[in-house]
Design goal:
272 residues; mainly alpha; 3 helical TM bundles of succinate and fumarate reductases; two-stranded antiparallel ribbon; 10 helices; 2 strands
């Protein structure tokens, strides 16, 4: 049976905010606290930030050639060579990212509930909006937008169900066929703007969540947050802009295998 401890009421007679659970392993008890949730949110945030920058670096290969990015996609499925069966390590990484995403959401939700319990009476003050910038006030909504976009992105470029011209193993043409649709390009632009705001506040507050907070380093923290979010935003927005501007065009579509080099006479675009 779970044992709980209730903090004694202070002299003023105020009721305790919440009960402190004392059951379960130490790591579980730590996660139940606000500090534990902040640490989990920070650590999973670092993991997701690492994925975002790695994902951008890989996608930038689209500017080199069709063969480069298609071979890159094939290398991800084959890593680490013959040491493991094909796609095993890729799925391990995917499961790790899914777990990080789930715990990131759960810890954010838990912190929100703790904050609401700590101040159950709705209180509005102009000072709240002076102290907190736009990115921090919209973290919940930018997180929701990014989460929905991830589902669409997977359906569009991983599963192919949202892309009628999808060909497995051909990320170059899949990306271009997808972003040739103005509506899809607009979705990518809006979602990546939301992602940039989310990353800006997340990369700024991540050090504070882990207890690393010193006014002497605030300028460096702010610079890192702006630089990281700006890099991701510019890099990701370049793809829909380049496709809509026809700087990137389909090349030898539906060639098998997709990693084969295009003959010089076959760099044709899809018929209208």
């Amino acid at each position: 049976m779970a044992i709980t401890e209730t903090r004694p009421a202070p002299a003023g007679g105020a009721a305790p905010i919440r009960r402190i659970p004392r059951s379960g392993p130490p790591i579980v008890r730590f996660y139940r606290t606000a500090v534990g949730k902040k640490w989990v949110m920070a650590i999973t945030g670092v993991m997701l930030m690492g994925f975002v920058i790695a994902h951008l670096i890989g996608n930038l290969k689209v500017y080199l050639s069709k063969e480069e990015i298609n071979l890159y996609g094939e290398a991800l499925r084959d890593m680490p060579g013959h040491l493991l069966p094909r796609t095993v390590l890729l799925w391990v990484l995917r499961i790790g990212l899914i777990g990080a995403f789930v715990f990131h959401l759960h810890s954010a939700y838990g912190l929100t509930r703790i904050n609401h319990k700590a101040r159950p009476v709705k209180y509005k003050s102009k000072r709240d909006y002076v102290a907190a910038d736009f990115a921090s006030r919209t973290m919940r909504w930018t997180g929701i937008i990014v989460g929905l976009f991830i589902l669409f992105h997977l359906a569009d470029l991983t599963w192919g169900v949202a892309n009628p011209d999808f060909l497995r193993g051909d990320p170059y043409n899949n990306l271009i066929y997808s972003l040739q649709r103005p509506g899809v390009a607009a979705i990518y632009i809006v979602a990546n703007i939301a992602l940039a705001f989310h990353l800006y506040h997340g990369s700024w507050s991540i050090f504070q969540s882990m207890g690393i907070n010193n006014p002497r380093f605030n300028r460096l923290r702010r610079g890192f947050a702006i630089g990281f979010a700006g890099l991701i935003l510019v890099g990701n927005l370049s793809f829909p802009i380049a496709v809509q501007a026809h700087w990137l065009e389909p090349k030898c579509p539906h060639t098998k295998p997709p990693t084969a080099a295009c003959p010089s006479s076959s760099t044709t675009t899809k018929a209208a």
